Amino acid sequence: MGATVKYERRGPIGVIRIDNPPVNALSHAVRSGIMEALAIAATDDSSAVVLFCDGRTFIAGADITEFGKPPQAPSLPDLLLTLDKHPKLTIAAIHGTALGGGFEVALTCNYRMALATAKVGLPEVKLGLLPGAGGTQRTPRLAGIPAAVDLITSGNPINARSALTLQLVDKVVDENLIDAAAAYAAELVEQKAPQRQASTLPLSLTREDQQLIEVAGAKLLKKTRGERAPQRILDCLLTAATQPFEEGLKREREEFVACLADPQSAALRHMFFAERAAGKIDNLSQDGQAISIATVGIIGAGTMGGGIAMCFAQAGINVTLIDMTDEAVSQGLEKIAKNWAISVKRGRLTAAQTDAMMANITPSSDLNDLAEVDMVIEAVFENLDVKKEVFAKLDGICKHGAVLASNTSYQSIDAIAAATTRPESVLGMHFFSPANVMKLLEVVRGAASSDTVIATAMAVGKKIGKVSVLSGMCYGFIGNRMLRHYGREAALCLVEGSTPTQIDSAMESWGMAMGPLAVSDLAGLDIGYKAREQLTAEHKGDPASYMVADRLVEAGRLGQKSGAGYYQYDPETRQRHEDSAVMAIVTEVRRELGITPRLFEDDEIVNRLTLALANEGAKLLQEGIAQRASDIDVVYCYGYGFPRFKGGPMHTIESMGLDKAVTLLKEFQNQLNPEHWQIAPLLTKLVANGGQLADHHGV
Ligand code: T1G
Fold first, then answer.
1. Residue 171 has pLDDT above 90, yes or no
2. Which end of the chain, N or C, is surrounded by fewer C-beta atoms within 10 Å?
3. Ligand 1 centroid to 432 CA: how many Å?
4. Over the range 576-598, which residues count as b (16 or more CB within 10 Å of their CB) and which as e?
5. Are residues 234 and 368 in the same domain?
């Protein structure tokens, strides 16, 4: 059975013990080991069999690293066929997170016992898959259609008590799981309990359930912006309620194979590993150990500072929230209280929880109150001189070893660090608005930033529920530097002949959470306008890429904040509407620039905007600003509404084929402004030697 699966006896009870760290995934070795152990248990004198896992969790699913490789027998369905027909009583002893194929193993056992702290779930949909080993057929037979729809299409785990209520587990214990499970098995044998198989439980389809499935399908298609796995899951559940179990298994297998082959699943599985890889820092020196952060000072109680303070307070970290005046801090606290009140109203948090979080925040208007904090995050006005002044003061106040971070979106971390005598303690921690909602945190390494502060910022980001991505220092770091090219192409498509509605609809139909012009309206057109005012004509770039935006701001159309920007906004619903006044401005700019508008296909818009992103991303990779291509994908999926089922901009061109991507880039270079389409040398190199972006690590 090898080292990963052992078979042992506890008196009359056989115990199959799985030990495959870190999460007891159902690798080939584990599947083979369980099969061998079941064979022994079938013929020995054991009276029942308990399946138990060592380590921190019961089986957490199929081994995702095996997908896409040649299958190795026994397959999970074959293993579960043997388990389903096993001659002895089988009991699953669940702790940690029994997920996916792991929970399907448990559902195939006759009985299930769970530790009170355990969770169970079928998260396959988050990988663009569906439970492929009977989960869509057994779950509704045990828990009913409504619960099965919710559990499998959401992919969210439920706790042991909820699983008990749904009859997905039979017993919940507080401790000593293996002893309790062996005793439970003996008790079942004593009681001559039947070998209950979920596969034989009856299931029929009521009208209500049929309607529920139809409504869920429509809702999910809209919510996921086109993911295909949810509907396939619903089709399997419908089959479970209308066909015999064997037919249902067949249908489930067909749909699972279709999911596995779907590019959406490849993208979502790419994101699963990308999110985890992002937290790893290449070439970290030995002293690059994170320090523990128990107290944080946030400077600036505005939208960003308040949101950042909420993140830390929610994680139980003490926050000193600073602004220039007591009144400014109180306003910040009021905004925080309002945000938490909304979460309580929506049932996401309780009033007691938000009271405890608020108690973690101490208001102050005196920087000296930061003398003993472990970390400071500056979130003041986006002006380099103001930031340098703040850091110079912090240098004289904060204790030795305190981490000094700036939430700047663009300013030079090196210039900020130079305002102190401890540049090794200075780095960027770039949060995304609203900071208490957006999961992305860009950790920006300055030239002098020590490995300790980098490791600390990455770790504290994870602790406050962010996905931390390390960025080197350049204007705009990873996300915003790429965004400038994306925004430029959107503006040029408009001036060259398209309309705001066509551009945004094309990108939203492709999968973006929100079209680029609608995003500009949301953020405020005046932000870009003010930034451009500080740039030379040369740095501003092609006038065609910003004249419309400038004219809109000069006409008082700042975006949603003024009720109109690229669109007119309904004051009540904030619904956007095309506005002829905008096209009048566009027509005027076209005339001034001598541009004859032409018809646009959606494909051109999508290709120009996504390739502009990926081409700049390849340059970031080549310059070593990003550690790996998948980090760039994480930045875009977590910070900019890029669809996870596309896997991020770099995965998008990798799955398109780099040769095809470079061909398109060459076409754009010939047909459009060649300055904008300088192809990243890394892309041409990879095409020349048949390499992959995934194999390239930043310098
Ligand atoms: N396969 C392979 N490796 C896995 C894995 C899996 N299923 N789950 C986790 N890992 C690795 C992960 O990459 C990381 O590796 C390490 O374990 C720790 O993970 C037939 C088809 C269980 C809640 O979707 O949700 O079953 O970075 O950092 O935060 O119907 O891992 O250390 O090298 O996430 O404590 C369904 C996925 C599969 C569960 C633990 N199962 N995993 O979270 O640790 S499809 C899932 C998780 C399936 C069947 C279908 C989480 C976790 P490294 P971690 P964590």
1. yes
2. C
3. 27
4. beebeebeebbeebbeeeebeee
5. no
Does 116 have pLDDT greater than 60? yes
Query: What is the CA(23)–ligand 1 centre distance, in A?
Result: 7
Contact (CB, 8 A) for 494 and 503: yes
Compute the distance from residue 60 Cα to the ligand 1 centre, in Å. 6
Nearest protein Cα to ligand 1, atom 23: 97
Give residue-wise pLDDT tens across range 195-209: 999 999 999 999 999
Q: What is the per-residue pLDDT for 699?
A: 44
Q: What global pTM score does this model have? A: 0.94
CB-count burial class (<10 Å; 0-12, 13-18, 19+) for 118? buried
Tokens of 154: 């959401």
**What values do phi and psi take at 386, rounded to 5?**
-60, -45
Model confidence pLDDT, tens digit, residues 73-113: 999 999 999 999 999 999 999 999 999 999 999 999 999 99
Cβ(333)–Cβ(347) below 8 Å: no
Structure tokens at 656: 């398109």
Mutation test of ligand 1: which of 23, 95, 136, 462 has the most ligand atoms closer than 8 Å to its C-beta? 23
The residue contributing the CA closest to ligand 1 atom 46 is 61
Which amino acid is present at 394? L
Q: In what order do the strands lie in the sheet with 119-121?
A: 97-99, 119-121, 158-159
Percentage of residues of the chain with pLDDT beyond 70 = 100
Provide the residue range defining the domain that includes 659: 604-695
Please give the Cα distance from 482 to 491 (Å, whole number). Answer: 15
Q: What is the pLDDT of residue 107?
A: 98
Q: Is 377 left (phi over 0), alpha (psi -120 to 50) or beta?
A: beta
Last residue of a domain, one of 593, 626, 646: 593
Q: Which residues line ligand 1 (CB under 6 A)?
A: 22-23, 25, 60-65, 76, 97, 99-101, 104, 123-124, 127, 129, 131-133, 135, 276
- We report the CATH number of the domain holding residue 508 as 1.10.1040.10
Catalytic residue status for 430: yes
Confidence grade of residue 654 (pLDDT, cut at 50, 70, 90): very high
Which of 593, 614, 631 is the endpoint of a domain?
A: 593
Quick one: 22 and 109 in the same domain?
A: yes
Residue with tokens 């944080």: 296
Percentage above 90 pLDDT, the chain: 92
Q: Read off the pLDDT of each residue in 458-485 and give the average, rounded to a whole number.
A: 96
**C-alpha pair distances (Å), 33 with each of 16, 104, 238, 613, 616:** 9, 17, 34, 47, 48
Domain containing residue 12: CATH number: 3.90.226.10
Give the Cβ contact number of residue 81 at 10 Å: 16
pLDDT of residue 694: 86
Closest CA to ligand 1's atom 34: 276
d(CA 292, CA 475): 30
What's the 316 CA to ligand 1 centre distance in angstroms?
26
